[in-house]
Amino acid sequence: MATRAFKVKQGLLVGGSTTEIGNILDEDDMSSDSATALATQQSIKAYVDSEVGNVSTNITVIDDSSSAVTLDTSLDDLKIGGGNNITTTASGNTLSVALDAALTGLTSVQIDSLNLQDNTITTDSNADLTLAPGGTGDINLTAGADVNLPANIGMTFGDDGEKIEGDGTNLTISSSGTVEIANTGTMTVQGALTVTGDLTVNGSTTTNSSTNTTIADNLIELNSGISSSGNDIGFIFERGSTGDNACFIWDESTDKFTLGTTTATGSDKSGGITVTAGTLTATCSAAQYSDVAERYHADAEYGAGTIVELGGVNEITKAATELSEEIFGVVSSNDTAAFMMNDRPNYNDTTHPFIAMTGRVPTNVVGTVSKGARLVSSSTPGYARQAQPGEATAFNVIGRALEAKTDTGMGQVLAVVSIKA
C-alpha cells in the first residue's frame, strides 16, 4: 500500500467536541493565539523554555536591621529559625512561630504603657500600675533585703484616708479614723513616745517602769467614773524586804484618810485595806480650824458645845450644877478641831466625843452674854452662862466669850476655852 499524507479539507472534530480544529501551527511565540489551531511539539517546547527562562528562581529575605540574604530557590531551601524565646514548628503546609512559655535573656519589654527593663518596672507618663490577683489571691513580695519606697512617697489604703509615709528620717502614720494595732503579743516602742491626743488604756494592769515619772496635771482622779464605791482608795508604796508597804488610804468604812503601813498590795482591790496607823512628821504653821481636841469616853452622846466635867460611869459627863468647879471642858467636833488626838479607829463622836483642850470653840450658853464675859456653868445641864460680878474663880471659869448673845434663851457663842486639870 502506498504511503501518502492524510488531508482533511474541512475542520476536524474529535470525539464529542464541538470545537473544530482547522489548522496545525508551528509558532514558537504562540503569537496567533488561535482557539481552533493545534501547536507543534517544537513550538510548544520553544514557548515553554522561553517563559521559564524569564522566571527568576532567586528570593531575597530582609531582616529588621535591613540586612538582606538572597538565595536560589532552585538550588537552596529557605529555613525560618527561631531565636531567644521564639520557637518555630512546621506541620504539613503550616509554619508556626511562637513565643516560649518562659522568656529569658530579655533586656526590656513594653506592654501597652507598661515597661520592663533590667530590674525596673515603669509606666508611661502618669499611668497607674495595678497588681490585681484574681479572686482572693494575695500579692506576695519576697525579698532578700528591704522593700524600699522613696522619701515623701507613702502607702495609702482604701479611699486614701489612711497613709504610711516616711521622709527619710521620720515616719508618719495618718488616718481619718481609728488606727488599730491588733497584736497578740507585746508591742515594744524603742525610744521616746509622744501622744498629742487623749490616751485611753483598757486592760487589767498598766505597768510603768521608768526611772522618773512626771505629771503636768494638777489633779489626779482615782476611781474615775464609778457610781458607788465600797473599796478603799489611795496609794500603796511597795518597800520590798524593808518592811510592810507604806500607804495613804481613804477608808470608805469611816470616811477618813488613814496613813501607815499595810501588807496589802495594789492587787488587793476588794473591800477595805487593813492599815497599821503610822506617824506623819510635819511642821504646821497654820490651821483652818480653831482648837486642839482629844477624844474622851462619855457616858452619853453629847453634841458640840456641851459643857462637860470629869465623872459619870466613864470619863466625862454633862455638867449640871451652877458654878461647878469640876468643869473639864467643852465638846468640840470635826468641823472646828484643828488637831484631833486619841482618834482611834474604834472611837467615834457618839461614844468618845472630842473635848477642846484649848482654842476657839462654839459653846452652849443660856441667857444674854456680853462680848468678853467670863463663862461659868449654869443650872441648865450642859450649858454655861455669863458670870456675874464676884462669881468667877480660877476653878469655875470655862472660858471667855468672843461674841455677844442678846436673847435670853439657849444658844451658842464662840468662846476661847482651855481644859481644866
Briefly note the structural class of the backbone.
Answer: mainly beta
**What value does the average pLDDT take?**
86
The general outline is: rod-shaped
Largest sheet: 7 strands, mixed
Give start-end ranges of low-pLDDT stretches.
none
- Total E-strand runs: 26
CATH class of the domain at 291-418: Mainly Beta
C-alpha termini separation: 198 Å
Strand content: 25-35%
Name of the CATH architecture of the domain at 291-418: Beta Barrel
**Number of helical regions:** 1
* Rg value: 61 Å
What level of helicity do the residues show? Answer: under 10%
H and E order = EEHEEEEEEEEEEEEEEEEEEEEEEEE
| Strands ordered across the widest β-sheet | 21-17-22-26-25-23-24
CATH superfamily of the domain at 291-418: Head decoration protein D
**CATH fold-level name of the domain at 291-418:** Virus Head Decoration Protein, Chain: A
Tell me what you see in this structure.
With 421 residues, the chain is mainly β. Among the domains are: 233-277, no CATH class; 291-418, Virus Head Decoration Protein, Chain: A (Beta Barrel). The chain contains 1 helix and 26 strands. The strands form 8 sheets. A 7-stranded mixed beta sheet has the order 21-17-22-26-25-23-24, with no helix packed on it. Strands 13-14-15-16 form a 4-stranded antiparallel beta sheet, with no helix packed on it. Strands 7-8-9 form a 3-stranded antiparallel beta sheet, with no helix packed on it. The termini are far apart.
